[in-house]
Structure formats: C-alpha cells, structure tokens
Amino acid sequence: MEADELAISVKKAKANEKRQREQEKAEKIAATQLIFDLDVIAGMTNAQLDEQLDAHRQWDKQIPIKARLKVKAVKLAALLASISRNSADNKSGNSNGGTTESSEQSQLPVLGEHRDDQDYDSDYDMNMH
Which of 22, 76, 95, 117 makes a 20 to 30 Å CA pair with 5? Predict the structure, then answer.
C-alpha cells in the first residue's frame, strides 16, 4: 500500500514539474519580441534564432520542428522564409495565421528530401530495372 502511494506521489510530482516547465516555456515564447529586421536576424546566435523560430512557430505552422533545424544556415533560412510568408500574407490580406496551403514553393525543403516528384519517379524507375 505504501509503495503504491509513493509511486502515485512521485508521478504527481513529475507531472507538476512537467506542467511547470511547459508553462515557463510558453511564457518565454510569449515574451519574445519578434524581430523582422534582416540585418539583426543575420547577426543572431543559434539560441536567438531558436527563440525567434519558437515564437514564429506559434502562428506559422510551416516552420519545421526544431529537430530538423540543426544547422545555423537552415535555421536562418527557415526564419527568413517564415517572415517572407508573413509579409506576403499581410500584403494579400490573408489572415489564416501565416499558413497558405496553395503556396508549394514557399515551403522549405527538409534536408535530404527530394522535392521534384517527377525526377524522383524516373530515378526510382531507372534504379529498379
């Protein structure tokens, strides 16, 4: 009986710690000031780019997950693409949170991903025969 109660209290403590960490992360993201100045962005550190990407990810669901953005150049490209999508959405009057389903070319390719399906199919067919 005591072991069960101890296990339950440990689980509750872990759940509370996790909730606290998630709340702190959400507060940090909410407090992040979005930067749109390209000169300032170009001089950012990896940590600063991560903060900006986390903040932009709140309204731009096309930004890849953090695990796919390991290199500074890729992080910078993702942030600049997000800013570009946002400015294009603002100019066109699109108010769906920065995402545009019809803009295939504005999506960032994932490293190692082949974007041209037709070439991929022909390469696949040649290698299979």
Answer: 22
What does each of the 129 residues of the chain score in pLDDT, given as a tens digit?
788 899 999 999 999 999 999 999 999 999 999 999 999 999 999 999 999 999 999 889 999 999 999 999 999 999 999 999 988 777 776 544 444 333 333 344 344 444 444 443 444 444 444
The rounded distance, in Å, linking the Cα atoms of 50 and 72 is 9
**Angular region, 112: left φ>0, alpha ψ -120 to 50, beta rest:** left
Q: Closest Cα to residue 97, out of 108, 109, 105, 85?
A: 85
